[in-house]
């Protein structure tokens, strides 16, 4: 079955992994609903870039901590395109501190954006997927949905929770031609990570190559960063007919991190 003409709603898709997935799905003829924060001019440029791939694209800046805005996001997508065929839950934030020093407001924001928002998007997107008899839910979970790291209590908690949600949703809709899977990337070399490399090098008096090898890629046995294009390719595969019987899984794209 061709994916051309279907619609994907991708949260957190104004930059990084989400934007990469948006462009990858657009290349397959899938209309895109962008969401996220950022500079208005940059967002508009990326929207035009997606539209140049011969698909339609709209942008909605819903705050993923606010359930009413999430509901309105899904409704706008359905009003514009008729349905959300593919839902990619990608929005996320991070804070790194010991748990006894972790600000409660940071904890709440990470749980809301990284986990609770996906409950709301799935809740509102599923009814029309069920009516259409086809759907794909893809949760971008991270390797931290499978293993833990110190000082990331909220992030790891949210991502482990997302794995439980993924499995539960997969079972609930298994007989309705809807799949729900998780992609678990390791370190992806985005602009955000690039900035972290420079900051870490300065703070630790290391070279940037040393930071990449000895800090960020210490757990990734390939010693290579994952690319946004690779994550987008996996997402596209999970939308394909070949993945029709793949549901409820955690698919690591982590250079061997979780194999050790």
With helices defined by DSSP (H or I, 4 residues minimum), what is the helix count? 8
How many domains? The number is 2
Helix content: 40-55%
Superfamily at the CATH H level of the largest domain? NAD(P)-binding Rossmann-like Domain
Give the strand tally: 7
SSE run: EHEHEHEHEHEHHHE
Secondary-structure class: alpha/beta
**Low-confidence segments:** none
CATH 2nd-level architecture of the largest domain: 3-Layer(aba) Sandwich
Largest sheet: 7 strands, parallel
Multimeric state: single chain
Give the secondary structure arrangement, pairings included:
Layout: E1 7-10, H1 16-26, E2 31-35, H2 40-51, E3 57-60, H3 67-81, E4 86-89, H4 104-132, E5 135-140, H5 153-172, E6 178-185, H6 191-204, H7 208-216, H8 228-239, E7 250-253
Parallel strand pairs: 1-2, 1-4, 2-3, 4-5, 5-6, 6-7
Features:
260 residues; alpha/beta; Rossmann fold; 2 domains; seven-stranded parallel beta sheet; 47% helix
What would your notes on this structure say?
- It is a single chain.
- Strands 3-2-1-4-5-6-7 form a seven-stranded parallel sheet, with helices on both faces.
- It is built from eight helices and seven strands; from the N terminus they run βαβαβαβαβαβαααβ.
- The mean pLDDT is 96.
- Helix 1 packs parallel to helix 2.
- It folds into two domains: 212 residues, NAD(P)-binding Rossmann-like Domain (Rossmann fold); 36 residues, no CATH class.
- 47% of the residues lie in helices and 13% in strands.
- It has 260 residues and is an alpha/beta fold.
- It starts with 6 loop residues before the first strand and ends in a 7-residue tail after the last strand.
- Helix 2 links the parallel strand 2 and strand 3.
